[in-house]
User: Fold this.
Amino acid sequence: MENLEDKTKKQLLKEIDQLKVKITELEKSNSEVKRTEEALRESEEKYKAMYEETPLSYQSLDINGNFLDVNPKWLNTLGYSSKEVIGKWFGDFLHPDYVEHFRKNFPEFKKRGYVNDVQFYIRKKNGEHIYISFEGCIGYTPAGEFKQTYCVFKDITKEHEFEKQLKESEAKFKTLVTNSEEIVYVIAKDGTFLLSEGKGLAKLGVEPGQVVGASVFDLYKEYPEMLDEMRRTFNGETITSEAKIGDIYFRNWYTPQKNEEGEIIGLLGLSVNTTEQKLAEEEIKKSNSLLSSIIDSPGNLIMFALDTDYKYLSFNKAHAKEMKAIYGADIEVGKLIFSFMPNEKDISKAKINYKRVLKGERFSEIQEYGDAHSRFWYELIFNPIIDTSLNITGFTVFVTNITDRKKSEIEIQRFSRIFEDSLNEIFLFDAETLNFTQVNSAAQKNLGYTMEELQKMTPLDIKPEFKIESFAELVEPLRKGEQDKIVFETVHQRKDQSLYDVEVHLQLLHFENQSLFTAIILDITTRKQSEEELKVKSEFLESLIQQSPLPTFVIDDKGILLVVNEAFMKLYAVPDKDLILGLNALSDPTNIKHGVD
Assistant:
């Protein structure tokens, strides 16, 4: 019994000693916890002082996403008071479209432990919304449990709007160039195509974007003049020119492309298919030369005829007057034309054209004559004279003095070089209001308006020939989708009230939430003047033929009758000229009689 009691006491003393050790360990552990808690408290106080003064908006959320704390910058940014925020759910302050975004991302945030550039659309107290971007992390307890979030955000509304506008602008530009009937391209300074778009590429057998990455110097090595113009553009010139690729005529505009430092890095190009206009102009010139080859022209139209030895067969008073003014010569029929021309350069130039026409070629060109002190420019039309045996016995030359026009063109070219020529005018305007939304620099410069002024205007403000009703009627086929493009001619009125002839290529483009008209403008003043001159001359010469009391007719180089007058019809007793037009009068003159019978 005594031994049992001694043993129990010993065990009790041992257990008491063990208990003392555990108590000591617990006291030591509690001391460490207190020190940790004190360090955390001091850290939080320092952190709180720091975020109170930070220039960024700070917020802290609990495990459910409710506000624990925000700093003054947060309150100032959104306009709330602390009482209106603390304890509220963060999602209640978001735009409805972003609430689900928060529900999905907050658990991921807690799981991952941090966030970077997470964006929300948050409501300010005044009802406005701003875009914000968050950076932050999770705070944990000493036991490693979730405690709260620590996040800051910055206002990115301006950046977001800029990015949105940039995307819209890129979309509009892409829609514009891909739907354009013309060809739009960008070429790097080493000749590499960076962009090639437009429906006009189909005429060349090329798909949009097909040549991107290829070299223009390889693809168009057979067109050295065009490549030379591009090289000049790489050196800073703005070029407007014409080119023929295969059977297609183009009018080209090249302008340098520069980077932010002003260095030329390539060129921007626009090519318009002018084949129809070219063919029409050539047909008018050919018709005019056929009629004028047998008629002496009065007025300021100069005419002379030479035989195969370059001696005068005839000339009108205007030509005699012009030769007197240029060379001081009194010309005579039967005399060699070169005997009146002391300038060897002028003689050499004339012989080149005379030899061409004596080979049977009909053509027209612009030439320059005179010396350094007195220069004259002429537009010449050359036609061979063919006898009844189809032999060429000489040729006629019809000349128009265009010195004043050329001097004006030279002055215009000088002006263009000084103020730097650019691509043709391009306008974008709203399909509903008709207000201009975008106008390129070439149009601004030509019209004399600033972009701010033009954005308050419509096409009716620069097109005096149109009223709202007539313009609405014009664009109706585009609105209904009956036509993809409308091409028409009119005049534009600049800010200074001056007018100029234009050809307008108009299309209706549809974007995501907006429809815009796009108008590409070609200045056709010179072409209109030329067409009008050719038309007047043609009608005048046709009138002279019909009014002539002598039987008069016109045949082509194969002897086919093209034109006859009333006197001719009476001579052959022809009741209707359609009975003989198209007959060969040279191979068998009886054809005329047979045609009547």
Observations:
- The CA atoms of residues 504 and 521 lie 5 Å apart.
- The longest helix spans residues 2-53.
- The two ends are 169 Å apart (CA to CA).
